[in-house]
Specification:
By secondary structure, the chain is α/β, with parallel strands linked by helices. It has a single domain (3-192), classed as Rossmann fold (3-Layer(aba) Sandwich). It contains eight helices and five strands. The protein has a five-stranded parallel beta sheet with strand order 2-3-1-4-5, sandwiched between helices. The radius of gyration is 17 Å and the shape is globular. The N and C termini lie close together (7 Å).
């Protein structure tokens, strides 16, 4: 039985860095939603008269394009799981974390075989996350930094309401995450579920 880990956390938590390291350490398939669908989303936004990089404030993106991104992500993950590969999903999932049935429904629609399902929630201190967002200087972070208190109140502690998954926490402060210890925990829990 393969495992699937969805890595979630607020912007600046380092979830993509941890997800890549976890995939490397486990020799798992790494699937990044933005790499998988980003260019198509930008083209669809531009073709429909929207700013190609505006996702967070675009109703068109949230209602018409984002669901398709996640459908594609789960379908490609399902293909890899059926081939016997472990997978690591790198996506924000922010719009779906409060929907208890989202993950299991998405795995069913993606044709996933029986797998050990994990969510790795990346946490980091507020000051560390804010410094990372300022330092990286991305346009998508301007609004977050402009209304920091609202951003932190909503996303500082990523709540996961999904049913049927094991939620693991990892603190990614200035010392980083112990990937070997994390993999050991995943493997132990995977073994218990067989």
């Amino acid at each position: 039985m393969s495992f699937a880990v969805a890595v979630v956390g607020p912007a600046g938590s380092g979830k993509s860095t941890v997800a890549r390291e976890l995939a490397r350490g486990a020799s798992a398939v790494y699937l990044d939603k933005d790499t998988l669908a980003g260019p198509l989303v930008e083209a669809a936004l531009a073709a429909s008269g929207h700013e190609s990089t505006d996702r967070e404030s675009s109703d068109f993106y949230r209602t018409r394009l984002m669901p398709s991104e996640y459908t594609a992500l789960f379908a490609v993950a399902g293909d890899n799981l059926r081939l016997g590969h472990d997978i690591v999903l790198d996506a924000p999932f922010a719009a779906y974390l409060d929907r208890p049935d989202f993950f299991l429904r998405s795995t069913a629609e993606g044709g996933w075989p029986a797998s050990c399902l994990f969510v790795l929630r990346i946490l980091a201190p507020e000051a560390v996350i804010k410094t990372r967002l300022v330092t990286r200087g991305l346009a998508r972070d301007v609004a977050k930094l402009g209304d920091w208190d609202a951003f932190w109140a909503r996303w500082g502690k990523t709540l996961v309401a999904w049913e049927g998954v094991r939620v693991l926490d990892a603190v990614n402060d200035d010392t980083g995450v112990d990937i070997d210890a994390l993999l050991k925990q995943i493997r132990e829990e995977e073994g218990e579920s067989r």
